[in-house]
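Molecular record:
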Amino acid sequence: MNETANNTNLLMKSDNDQKLCGHVSTKIDNSFELMTESEVIQFLRIPEISNSKDYHNVIEHLKKIRGLPRIHICRKALFPKKAILDWIEKESDTGK
């Protein structure tokens, strides 16, 4: 079998297996899920509990004053879901 045919077979096999690179699965572990600011606003239910007209300000306050965990990728803040859950536990009365 020549190299071109072999490469074509590998590509077809990886497409059929729903893999990115033949050995990396497309399934993502939810414990490492990264949320956007909009998703964090919904996750923390900010619209239900805040009178603020700009929920971004609420998130900024939580980041600066309360240490809301986040990472920056390409100058954008992303919020690891597990770190947010740990932060909630730490900030809550039951976590102290």
